[in-house]
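Morning run. Coffee first, then this:
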Amino acid sequence: MHRDLELIRKMVMTIEDAPSGWAPHSLEIEGYSRAQVGYHAWLLVDAGLAKGSDTTTNDSEGPEAVISSLTWNGHEFADAARDDGRWTKAMGVVQEKGGAITIAVLTQLLSSLMRSAFGL
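And here it is:
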């Protein structure tokens, strides 16, 4: 399964929007399967953007996790990725430069676009 940056953004935003700070118990993102969300939850935990537990079993379609909350880095990513215009511009740059990017570089790109918006 390929990493889907749009799904990662949607998951981070959904978790951040939870009023308690805890991730929704059953994280569902419209248009994505349980396996896709579970795998991307596992990626978010692995990347240090979220805290959670690996729930992979022999019956799992792939690695999966349940997220409990975002980390500081997860909130930093959310702040950088929140603005739709900035996100669209960053994804345009990614496509223009070859279509692949790491989370670390994407966060830097989004942060750079944010700094520009503030005139920094």
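The chain is about 50% helix and 10% strand. Good start to the day.
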